[in-house]
Amino acid sequence: MSRRCDQCGAPGSPSGRPASCLACQLPAPLGLSGAGPVGAAVWLPAARRAGDLGTILRGYRRASALTQQQLAEMLGYDRIYISMIESGRRKLTDRGTLAHIARTLAIPPHVLGIAGPDDADFAAMLAFGNSVIRLAQIARRGGRAAEAVSELWPLITRLEARVAAGYAEPEAMSLLARARMSLGVALGHLLPDEQLATAARWTGRALRIAWHLGDRPLLGLMLRMHGNELRKAGHPAAGIIRLRQALQVDDHPVRQGAGLVLLARAAAESGQASLFDATASQCVQALQTAAEQDVLFNPFTVREVRLRGLLATGRTAQAADLAGHCPAGSEPPSPHWRVIERITTAEVLARAGDEHAAETMLTAAIGDAEFLRLPHQVQRVVRLASEPGVLTGGTVHQQARTALTRLERQLTGTAGLAGSRAAVRLPGITADEA
Question: How much is the pTM?
Answer without folding.
Answer: 0.72
